[in-house]
Amino acid sequence: MNKPITVAICGCGNRGLEAYAPFALKYPDKMKVVAGADIKPERLRMLRERFDVPEEMCFASDLELLAQPRLADVMIVATQDRLHIRPAMAALEKGYHLLLEKPISSSLDECIALREKAHECGRAVVVCHVLRYTKFYSVLEKLLREGAVGKLQTIDAMEHVAYWHFAHSYVRGNWRREDESSPMILAKCCHDMDIIRWLAGSKCRSVQSFGSLDWFRAENAPQGSAERCLDCGVKDACPYDAEKIYITNKASGFRSIGPRWPGNVLVDRPTEEALYDHLRHGPYGRCVYHCDNDVCDRQTVSMEFENGVLATFTVSAFTEACYRYVRVTGTMGDIEGNLDDNILKIHRFGEPEEVIDIGRIIEEYAGHGGGDFGMLHYLCDLLESGDTRGLTGIDASVESHLMGLAAEISRHDGGKTVLLSDIDHG
Ligand SMILES: NC(=O)c1ccc[n+]([C@@H]2O[C@H](COP(=O)([O-])OP(=O)(O)OC[C@H]3O[C@@H](n4cnc5c(N)ncnc54)[C@H](O)[C@@H]3O)[C@@H](O)[C@H]2O)c1
Q: What is the CATH classification number for the domain harbouring 118?
């Protein structure tokens, strides 16, 4: 048996400790967490307690961790969006392979610079486009590649964010402002850009986009509302009420789901008392109409690929459930499905419908439809094989980031067509 790959985690927050590090506990023969960095002592304490990382291997920042000689095979960069590029560049220079959270950066130049650095250093860079590692999308991609519905013509994808998830992350939370994180199309939808490009099986030629922040603005605050939900006179009629979202909602509230996400973003160790305390004083207790958010709450993107495939994408905050939908059409049939049901329906023209129940063929189901752990299995296999290109390697990932950045240029310019070849100066 091979030795487990060793990882250092830069940014021991939700992704670092909840999505990736647990893989090492489940598969100790494949991965071992040996070091980590976070600016919050509590997160380092959790790293030590849960993953048995010695005190001397816990560092107070990315800078401190990267001032050490190389401590592991892989650096997992799971800091917030604006703090990916600095540790990622430094880790490549130190000789680490990278598991890099998306988005790489919201700067075109930085995305291209990282691509160049990865090529120069010859290290594996797996960008966390976790959806590629789900059975749902990999079965769909295989069907298309095998010509199950003839020559691919169109792809329509929709991301239903769910009203409460949008309010949590993009109105009250970490991704609410472009200047502190990224535009929506990168923060939430760089996965979708990546999947659409992968399904299309070709480079994207041009992009058009429309979108804006329409609803979560002060002028839409109902009469009788207050700065904080707990003080609001009309909270009973408001689906965005923070008390509902964090305490009583079936899908997201502590009383139904316990101390998990999203409550664990408000406080490290959620209890009902600690959550109420945060709602009284913290940012997630704010009225959704009185926040300092500026990212789009709906956006559309139209894409044309070099092989002639056409695609559309819509993301909306305003949905009850949280799932992705996709429909592809080909010259001999169409396929549709959604990641929540985990079912693909194939219609070969003139023939009975074929239903593929992905849930039945999944052996393991962790976050993102199995994508989080699927990606880590892939990373371990990749390093064992010595092939450093990776399914979500840097070239493919930068391409999908450029699609998102092109969409932003288009959106800010009234939906004008942006050619990808005009912006990729690398
Ligand atoms: N791949 C996916 O599907 C997916 C899903 C959600 C989030 N993300 C991305 O993952 C990243 C992390 O998201 P999260 O929800 O875990 O955020 P988080 O805020 O929970 O975690 C980030 C951690 O980085 C720490 N940190 C801040 N400055 C640091 C520094 N200088 N050195 C070391 N650590 C530092 C913070 O204290 C925090 O604990 C984001 O970029 C986000 O967009 C990806």
A: 3.40.50.720
